[in-house]
Backbone:
């Protein structure tokens, strides 16, 4: 617990790249051994923070390819990964009922990766690119099927707003092809200022906090 968060996150990423199964077993041992120690010496939030740090490491690991090098080749690889995962998810090939802590964190990180990847290309996309179209259609279907899980749509909206600005967000909300992804009433409030950050922050904060209830 004396290691700084950034060092822990880096170590987690290295372990992820080295052997994911080893990482999973390692974390299970950490969570088990630390529980008694934390109960005696720390607040319960310390254990939750460790789990959230793993979630952040997963996200960093997934996003590193796109943030370090934004080449077309890397973006195409991200699109391929997102299309493959969403296909598996929608076809029921992913066990979403798995209550394993690490599996749940990984699932959340992969879903965020897919939504963020789609948000990169939803503006001025190539209508002749089959993989791009596939990802947009799969994302629309995924969000539509999971309408009860609000943070999926809100997280996508937040990423579009952050990457492409308010004007593009509102334009997409008025276009037939993307209105399902970005319903106009979710992108603005009475004074015409998008409030997605407020919504997303609260929704995703609840998601992250709920990790403490997975024990």
Residues:
């Amino acid at each position: 617990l004396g290691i700084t968060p950034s060092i822990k996150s880096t170590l987690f990423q290295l372990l992820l790249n080295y052997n994911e199964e080893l990482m999973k077993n390692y974390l299970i041992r950490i969570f088990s051994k630390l529980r008694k120690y934390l109960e005696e010496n720390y607040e319960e939030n310390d254990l939750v923070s460790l789990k959230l740090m793993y979630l952040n490491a997963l996200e960093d690991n997934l996003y590193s390819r796109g943030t370090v090098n934004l080449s077309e080749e890397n973006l195409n690889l991200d699109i391929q990964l997102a299309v493959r995962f969403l296909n598996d998810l929608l076809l029921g090939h992913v066990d979403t009922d798995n209550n394993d802590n690490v599996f749940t964190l990984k699932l959340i990180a992969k879903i965020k990766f897919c939504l963020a990847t789609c948000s990169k290309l939803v503006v001025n996309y190539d209508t002749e690119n089959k993989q791009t179209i596939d990802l947009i259609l799969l994302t629309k279907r995924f969000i539509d099927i999971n309408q009860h899980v609000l943070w999926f749509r809100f997280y996508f909206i937040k990423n579009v707003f952050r990457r492409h600005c308010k004007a593009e967000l509102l334009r997409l909300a008025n276009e037939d092809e993307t209105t399902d992804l970005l319903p106009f009433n979710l992108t603005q409030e009475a004074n015409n200022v998008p409030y997605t950050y407020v919504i997303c922050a609260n929704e995703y904060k609840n998601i992250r906090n709920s990790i403490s209830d997975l024990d």
User: Anything to note?
Assistant: Residues 73 and 181 are 26 Å apart (CA to CA). The radius of gyration is 19 Å.
